[in-house]
Amino acid sequence: MNTDYLEINRRSWNWKTGQHIVSRFYDVDGFLAGKNSLNEIETNILGDVRGKSILHLQCHFGQDSLSLARLGAKVVGIDLSDAAIEKAQELNKTLGLDAEFICSDVYDLPNRLDRKFDIVFTSYGVLGWLPDLERWAGVIGRFTKPSGMFVLVEFHPVVWMFDPDFTKIDYPYSSQEPIIEETGTYTDMQEEAAIPTVNWNHGIGDVVTALIRQKIAVEELVEYDYSPYDIFHGAVESEPGRFHLFDGKMPLVYSLVGRPKNDET
Ligand SMILES: C[S@@+](CC[C@H](N)C(=O)[O-])C[C@H]1O[C@@H](n2cnc3c(N)ncnc32)[C@H](O)[C@@H]1O
User: Fold this and answer.
1) What pLDDT, in 10s, does the model give residues 39-76?
2) What is the residue range of 34's domain?
3) Which of 69, 166, 237, 251 suits a disulfide with 97, CB 3.0-4.6 Å?
């Protein structure tokens, strides 16, 4: 495995952050003006977050974390990219919110934070940056209160098997081998930039098994035939905010709810 993967990915995400904060996709002006960046899927699962403590893993530059803070949650967002965390802290200040942001690798978080949360939340494009899901699940277990909840909303692993035009299968559904690529970013779908990244494909079975092994009971697992984001070539919007591929015959997103398995249960 490329031991430099963290540094390669940090550089890539620092560059992407610069692109994203001026992109129409992230619409920072709209967000500052009051727009909630969360989608229906996670909003429905998270429910009423008022007064809840939430740890948001891989929060990017914080729009979802701050949307949760606006709804009354006490949020801590963490991310590997120092550029993303700086922007998140700036937005937090501009909006007069009380979210906290920490620049950290997910795996290093137990050395940086010592608290438990009502909800641990992570979403859309997060697992592929992590080589070891059991270690990731251990971090979730470490930070979730015994009565707490873990919420994952992620792109379905079948989408990462295809070439960018969805014409052929290029990658395995699940593999421990890193995929080393040079890519642009999803906010403009242009391939002009070529920034190195290192990522891994994890099947849903790997995710569920990692959580179970770390004593997180999977309570619900739902697959969706649409993505709320228009990031896949050739996707068709059937209704506002629902983008399908292959006439909706392919799953594009899944959500998972887990709860710590207390010893007495
Ligand atoms: C696709 S973004 C998540 C998108 C986010 N849900 C949003 O709506 O903006 C993935 C994030 O994972 C972060 N990341 C990648 N590897 C990481 C790691 N090892 N530890 C913590 N964060 C990491 C990146 O810096 C990036 O901000």
Assistant:
1) 999 999 999 999 999 999 999 999 999 999 999 999 99
2) 5-157+202-228+253-260
3) 69
